[in-house]
Design goal:
Layout: H1 7-19, H2 22-29, H3 33-47, E1 52-55, E2 58-61, H4 63-87, E3 95-99, H5 107-118, E4 124-128, H6 131-139, E5 145-150, E6 158-162, E7 165-170, E8 181-186, H7 190-202, E9 207-213, H8 216-224, E10 230-233, E11 241-243, E12 257-262, H9 269-281, H10 284-287
Parallel strand pairs: 3-4, 3-5, 8-9
Antiparallel strand pairs: 1-2, 5-12, 6-12, 7-10, 7-11
Helix pairs in contact: 1-2, 1-3, 1-4, 2-3, 5-9
Organism: Rhizobium subbaraonis
Family: Belongs to the LysR transcriptional regulatory family.
Protein name: HTH-type transcriptional regulator TtuA
Amino acid sequence: MSLPLESELLRAFLVIADTGNVTRAATVLGRTQSAISMQVKRLEEAVGAPLFERGPRGVTLSAEGRRLVPYAQRIVGLIDETASAMRSKPLDGPVRVGIPEEYTQTVLPRALAAFAECHPATEVTVLCGHSAQQARALENDELDLAVVFDWRGTQSGDVLCVDPTVWVTSRAHELHLLRPVPIAVYRNSDWFRDFALRSLQQHTIPYREAFSCDTCSGLATAVSAGLAIAPLARSNIPPAARELTREDGFPPVDSSRVVLKRNPHRSSAAITSMMEVIRAAFQPSALG
């Protein structure tokens, strides 16, 4: 090419290719027909080949014109994207997010990375804890957003997904065959009593408490080590473990919805943007 390519020449080229008519392209671009024709001539001189074939009803792309189209689209698109980004005001203000421990290795890193890439100047604070803790923090104005498990179907907010809790065992052990079956338990948990233990009691499965902790990672450790079976979110089953199904004699513990709740007293563009990236991170393709 003897001359540098200019973005406005490429933009005019794409409009002509789309409309098939120099006059219509001139109207779209707000230029005169002669000015558009001159731009086409300059672009053809730059690439060293004719880009259009002229006919009585307008113009069609030549072979070189068709080859240029995808490159022109990428260049013009990148320029438009750059201009839009530079005109956008950076988001400010802190964003305080609460999320269950179950998603700290999957959803949370994806969401924070996507948010930081778009809004590097925004200060993000994360609280990792149980759903009840998240709900209290939201009510006390300590959080702007909270992701919580809703196992009773009573929580308001955006439903991100359904992530049932199931009984899980190590693949290398057959602990679920033992009676009483050793289980890992959450300490001081109403949910564990009302859902996990009740699921065993309703199916007359005798059990003994072999491991207790306050975190889902503790439960996962107990399973992986072959110390006990444990109730875990289906999306959070360790690689060396498997779900215990009805065929094994163990029904699901619950059908938890995962809900994104927003502090009604806080509103900002940064909070809205964080909501969007959290929703995207919880899409089925991302969780799978």
